[in-house]
Amino acid sequence: MIAMNRNDKRSRWRQLVSGWVSLLLLLALASPSIAAESLPQVVLSRDHTPITYEVYGSGEPTLVFVHGWSCDSRYWRMQVDQFAKKYRVVVLDLAGHGQSGMTRRCYFMRAFAEDVKAVTEAVGSKTVILIGHSMGGEIAAMAARMMPDRVIGLIGVDSLENVEYPLSRQEAEAMLAPMIDHFRRESRNFVQTMFRPNTNVAVRQWVLDDISSAPPSIALEALEAYLFEYVRGKIAKVFDTLKIPVVCVNGDLWPIDYEANRRHIKSFEAIIVPGGDHFLMLDKANAFNQALEKAIYIVMRKAADIR
Questions:
Q1: pTM of the full predicted structure?
Q2: Fewest CB within a 10 Å sphere: which of 97, 136, 148, 264?
């Protein structure tokens, strides 16, 4: 695996401290009710890495939003207010992302799933729907397997197009190789393919700038771990053991292999947002939110039937 650079860790910790100072200043200026509701909380993951999360609203089920590769909880900012009116909404930063800790030795998928488990258990809900974007979909599935008594369903967001995706070792290594020496430039090129030509310019620029600014060593190790889960065929096996309903809310940039998914997922459906790209929760927020509300309803109905 790709070794972590100590300079990356020091730089990221300085950013973390700076971010907390800025956050505290903003909270001091905010109204008491808003500040009390959105004040970040911290829980330790299984390996004792601090994981930051925020809780909004009330009501069941609890929706736990899991971001994707080199993203963080800010990518759900167009969903929090709307869904917190009806549900308890939880957003978190996986280890090595956003405001969470960087003490982890290995940024593997199972370790990220432990982050989701730690936050979900800290919140205390017994009725949880995990919502995962991109790589967060697979992470959420692993976390769901760890919490069969809490998680009633899983919603993928432009994720899980084919849990059997036939990725070879050579293909995975070819995707990683350009970013090893030129992460900022090549990560932008990598993510650029996930947009449509008519994607909102401001959204595109922000995402590209943000993801390409991730700590390279952490980003590369996480991406390598993710890709090789498919190389080894382990993602499909995760779903073989899940009994919960799975619904995807995806754009139409890439096709979904329903047949492959249904060989492993007991209950699988997808809602397609026309014109949506990989970051449809930002670029097509209104249409996405409507589709997500529908997906939540489907999960709740099917979960009731299963139980």
A1: 0.88
A2: 148
